[in-house]
Please model this.
Amino acid sequence: MPNSLERKASALNGMIIVGSCMLGAFEATRPWGIGIAIFMGAGLIFSGWANFCGWYRILGPRGSKQPGQPSFWTGGRDAHIKGVNDHYSAQIYDATNRANASVSEAERKQHLDQAKALRAEHRQMIHEAKHAVY
Model:
């Protein structure tokens, strides 16, 4: 099984929470144990809500020095946006060419509607890529 960042982050979260519970078991260190557990729980809630994980920033790849980077890290946001543009440009171009080559008006309208839907989906994907956390 590969050693993914998600597994490392989950293991670290678990170890910190177990350690804080152990601190909370003793009267002298109870405030520290409860405080750390609350902090980690709040961090996990924020991570799920904001789709941002601090452990990924700490443990994740830096630059292009590490081999075997996950594809979403390679090139970052600009490379992802270029990939989305390339993917949708080819599909929109194909749908438009099929519309121009159509014999019947109904078939032409169907292909033009498909191209219009692809353009809307393309805009949505670009919007999501521009606001994604990398």
